[in-house]
Amino acid sequence: MPTKYKYSVPDPGQLPRTGETVRYKSGLLEEDQDPVLYPETGHDTIKKILMHAYKEYADEPYLGSREKSFDEKGEVEYGKYKWETYEECINKAIWLARSIYDKELFNTASEEGRKYNLIGIYSKNNEGWAITDLACCLSNMATVTLYDTLGADSSEYIIQQTELKTVVCTADHVDALIKIKTVKGVDHLQNIVIIGEIEHDDVATIERAGMNYYTIDALIEEGKHSKTELDDPHNQDLFTICYTSGTTGNPKGVKLHHGCITSLVGAIDLSPIKISSNDSHLSYLPLAHIFERAIFFGLSTVGARIGFYQGDVLKIVEDLGALRPTVFISVPRLYTKLYDRIQGVIKEAKGCKAKLLKWGIDKKLANYRRNGAVTHCMYDALIFKKMKARLGGRVRVCVTGSAPISKEILEFLKICFCCDILEGYGQTELTAANCITQPGDEKSGHVGGVFPSFWMKLVDVPEMDYLSTDMRNGENYPRGEICFKGGGAFHGYFKEPAKTEETIDKDGWVHTGDIGEIQPDGALRIIDRKKNIFKLSQGEYIAAEKLELIFVKTPLIAQIFVYGDSLQSFLVAIIVPDNEYVDKNYSPGYSSSSEYLQEINDWFKECREEHKLNGLEIPKRLHVTNEEFNIDDGTLTPTFKLVRGVAKKKFLSQIKEMYGGAKLQGE
Fold first, then answer.
1. Exposure b/e, 508-537, CB count within 10 A at least 16 = b
2. Does 51 lie in the same domain as 13?
3. Are residues 446 and 480 both part of a single domain?
4. Which segments does the entry list as coiled coil (predicted)?
């Protein structure tokens, strides 16, 4: 099948092993070129990249925050962005690093014969977060990231596992850290470094807890006068331990080294994003996640501007209007909200305005589906200029990642914002960027080709009937578990050798657990999940089997199949009642009554409280059936384990109905 896009291509001279595909690489690479390890400048550490930016873009704006003032009622008002240059920011980072070394604020953690100098960061995105991260990159320290959605128990676990001595944070996290120190008895947590302002009472509370208190500004000022020589990191030295949210236990610390970022930056040079010093970006996705940090360092390399949001995601549109970025990076959850708001405006339109909107949308959608065009010489000025203004009016390219996004929303927003929205796919273990689509590609439902920093292959999963030899209409459509290898691959999970061995095989391939299908043009489709863990459209991981084991503990339920889809925002469930118990203890036909459903929902609420489940882990819609899962129809294995793929096929119509007929992933 001919294509104008260079997606994944077989690596010349590579023969496939039995049970897997050939090795693929990016079609953006030359035929004899391996995946990149460094940017074109040849810099092999983040420090070298930053010092190059310091030299090339010294006087250019780098990091910006909105100016704050107070109105007559004492309420905070946010104004224009105030910028600091590359020279100013990197100097601050150097001075901060010197103070950290002089005061020995880092701790040294040992693992498998290696030692790491670590410091924690616990804050929303702001300049202090970034300066701390840069300071560590410039001095061979590594950051350990904490964030609110992990929860207090997970934060304690991370601080314990990494033996953190110091956490850099904003004032709103002081109480949580003091509790970890005093109530949980984490004695090695000794220092709090505050970003921004702090109340006098908070300082007193820190001191009563037997902890030391510093401000980041004071440390930077002291560092100006220090003569300490900072260590130079090497390519394979640790850059960060980035924790992924655990669904069946504690979070896992992903060890990423400097080479992960240098290979990412080198790949961005070749990717369709094409960023430059003329670009600007709003930083609001958590810097504690590798997705935002990958973007941060990619932009830093070319002298672009990075402006921080005011700290409230509900006011993102205000920040976009003030910053007017050229590159917008987001996740399906926010794109869906933008889609809903625009749809609301369209529905409210009346008369000639409504007709004009309909004509413009129909015309642009038809053009897009025909040739991938996202602009129109007439309708953009008449209709879509105001829609584009929701992102500030200057965005030239958007990127979406972390979870799939529906075709309808993607197409609609492309024509509304008058720019391409590139869909990416990645994992923390692979520095966030593994695949990306191309501008002008009118096809949806895939994640493009392998990023130029990786090789990719699919490995057979025969128990799920996914094979590298799969065919469709006489053409090979390889299917199997997606695996990557390259400079962006992680070194393993911190102090979790068994889990590392489960993920990285003996040949260095990282097994993602996702099932993919390679299209004839080399584009990758994500069609399933090997493990019973998947993401909802918000990016929230769900462990279905864990939930089923909890929910089936009531005598009202004989069997349950919890289903979630990455294009949908909630779970549904197929329930088989224990009719023997129900008939004995309730009136005839009770299991088909509304009272039964209410009792099941009440049971789910009990489970949520007892097992500390979040709201997304509770099925929103239910279908009750007397068709039991069994070995004969393949929905159960001989050991009575649920075969999820077969169960989905058996109850597909009911699942579709519970989702209101919406498309499911893989359709």
1. ebbbbbbbbbbbebbbbbbebbbebebbbb
2. no
3. yes
4. none
Nearest to 514 by CA among 352, 358, 665: 665
**Backbone φ, ψ for residue 96 (5° rounding):** -65, -45
Which residue is associated with the tokens 């882990």?
A: 617
Instruction: Specify whether 257 is located in the same domain as 130.
Output: yes
Domain count, the chain: 3
Query: 523 and 462 in one domain?
Result: yes
pLDDT of residue 246: 52
pLDDT surpasses 90 at 508 = yes
User: What is the separation, in whole angstroms, between the first and last Cα of the chain?
Assistant: 20
Q: What is the mean pLDDT of residues 64-93?
A: 93
Instruction: For 274-315, write each residue's pLDDT tens digit.
Output: 899 999 999 999 999 999 999 999 999 999 999 999 999 889
Per DSSP, what are the bridge partners of residue 420?
A: 397
Beta strand ranges found along 428-537 (DSSP E): 435-436, 449-450, 454-459, 471-472, 475-476, 479-486, 492-493, 510-518, 524-529, 533-535
**Position of tokens 């929905």?**
635
> pLDDT value at position 89?
98
- Same domain for 171 and 264? yes
Euclidean distance between CA atoms 96 and 402, whole angstroms: 32
Give the model's pLDDT for residue 465: 80
Do residues 303 and 277 make contact, with C-beta atoms less than 8 angstroms apart? yes
In this structure, is residue 426 part of a structural domain?
Answer: yes
Mean pLDDT of the chain: 91
Beta strands in 275-401 (DSSP E): 280-283, 305-308, 327-330, 397-400
Contact 118, 85 (CB under 8 A): no
Query: Percent of the chain beyond pLDDT 90?
Result: 64
Cβ–Cβ < 8 Å for 24, 10: yes
Burial of 373 (0-12, 13-18, 19+ CB in 10 A): middle
604 with 618: CB under 8 angstroms?
yes
Same domain, 449 and 369: yes
Contact 265, 301 (CB under 8 A): yes
Q: Which two tokens stand for residue 639?
A: 């050991």
Tell whether the model's pLDDT for residue 247 goes beyond 50: no
> Is the residue at 493 inside a domain?
no
Same domain, 200 and 244: yes
Same domain, 102 and 213: yes
83 C-beta neighbours (distance < 10 Å), count? 16
Q: Read off the pTM.
A: 0.84
CB 44 within 8 A of CB 235: yes
Read off the pLDDT of residues 338-380 as tens digits, 9 standing for 90 and up.
888 888 888 888 988 889 889 989 999 998 988 888 998 888 8
CATH number of the structural domain spanning residue 566 = 3.30.300.30
Is 3 within the bounds of a domain? no
Please report whether residue 320 resides in a domain: no
